[in-house]
Each structure stands twice: as C-alpha cells, then as structure tokens.
Amino acid sequence: MAAPTFDLQAHSVASDGALEPGEVVARAHAAGVELLALTDHDTVAGVDEALEVAAATNGEITVVPAVEISAVDGEREDLHVLGYGIDHRSPVFAAHLAAWREDRLARGQRMAEAMRELGWNVELPERAADSERPLGRPHLAQAIYDDPANAQRIEEEGLADFSELLVAYLIPGAPGYRRRTVPDVGEAIAAIHEAGGVAVWAHPFWDIDSREEVRESLERYAALELDGVEAFYPAHDADHAALLAEEAAGLGLLTTGSADFHGPEHPQFSEFRAFELHGIEPNLGAIDPR
What we know:
Blueprint: E1 6-7, H1 21-30, E2 35-38, H2 47-55, E3 62-73, E4 76-84, H3 91-117, H4 137-146, H5 151-157, H6 162-169, H7 185-194, E5 198-201, H8 204-207, H9 211-223, E6 228-232, H10 238-251, E7 254-257
Parallel strand pairs: 1-2, 2-3, 5-6, 6-7
Antiparallel strand pairs: 3-4, 4-5
C-alpha cells in the first residue's frame, strides 16, 4: 500500500508553534495532508484537541498521538527524538515529560540570568509558570526581543527578528547559552517505548554536519533500539535523504519525513508538505495506522 500524504512533525502553542493545536490540524488538512503528527516539545498538551479536530474531518486527515523529546548525547546538547503512536494519557509518560520540562525551565532561568549579566533586560514569559507548556529558547528570545527596554540595543546590533537574537546569543557556543542535563537519547527512546510508541531520530543533518558522524550516531541509536530516522526534511538534500534511507535499510529502521511546521509566519518552517522524497519510498511502518 502506498504511503498517505504525510507530514510527521508539527508544532502548536503547546510548545514553540504559533497556532492552537486545532488550527494546526485544520491548516494541514487544507494543505492536503492525510497523516499528521502534532509533535510539541516535551509535552502532549495539544494532542487531544488535535485528535478531536481530525475526527471531525471524517477520516480525511488522521492525527498520530506524538511528541518531540529534546535529548542530550555527550557533547551534543539538543538532539530530538520523535515519539509516534504513544499513549499520550499514560501517567508514567506524563511524569517523564514533567521532569524534563522542569529541566527545560531550570535551563531557561540560567540563560535568562546569563543574558541579564550581558546587559539585556529579561523578564521570563508567562508560560514559565505553566507546568504543561515547556519553556524553550525561542520563547526566551521572543521575550527579550519584544521588551521595549532592549529596542535600542537590538537596533544597534542589527537583529532583524527574535530568531537572529536566538542565533546570536542562545545556541551552543553563544554567550547566553546554557546546557540541558536530561534526558539522554537512550532515556528518551525507552520512555517512548514504555508509552507504546515508535522512536524516530528527527532531522539528523539539521543537528550534525558530518556524514560520518550521522552514520555513527544512527548506528549507536539503533543499538539503543531506535525505530526510525527522519530522512526527508526541508534542510535535507537528495544526498542526505539517500544516505539516511540506505543506512536505515541496513539497520532495519523506518524512514519518515516532515516540514516541521511552526506557523505561517515562521522564517523557516511555515508550510506543510515543504519537503522532498527525492524519489525514495518512505517506510512509515506502524506510524501509518491504516
């Protein structure tokens, strides 16, 4: 059976997206997506709303309960593991996510203090008090960028939007960045499996440039019982996709893809289905419930 028109990573206001979960589903439906995953970072707060809106389409779009877990791997500080087909109501899984969101919040507070020491005015956004919604670097960057007290400095430094501020100050190696501590990749995979899900490494070449390092990492993660890899992605060219598909076939892994939708105004991830298969047949396995 041919794969449906799929887009297996999207974000809502439950994490770092711009739209409510139901609106994400509605826009995906309008774009012709038949199989969608709402993959908010370290939270499943939007999944029930997404499922409800999908159900109203009478089967025209199916939403897979999902999550994107931010993990660490040695010196790699922000690798993402997608969990598909999870029991999003599992109390045990909820406890894992809550602990990891606490780590996100603590990291955000450390970065806020670092930015204050660098002379920026920083007030944590309201979501910092919401235990269900993770505090990510984009939220902190947006709060700093929008603060009128920082307007003159932003103009002096030529920062066109919050994304440029994030890159200048809040990515690994930048002066305001601080590390997360948990979970590691193996812990993320184990938690997804415990919740009945399928674990997939998200956008490898977004995080790692070296082809050999991607191969080596994929082999290590497969040994940790990873189930698949996101081979098709806006930042993956034909060579990236071919390498990942070949490695996945050799390791018995699934191959998925997404446009990583964050919202219609996002500078990079603003459209559904904005990725290429490059003539390669995806292998969605149990992620496709048909």
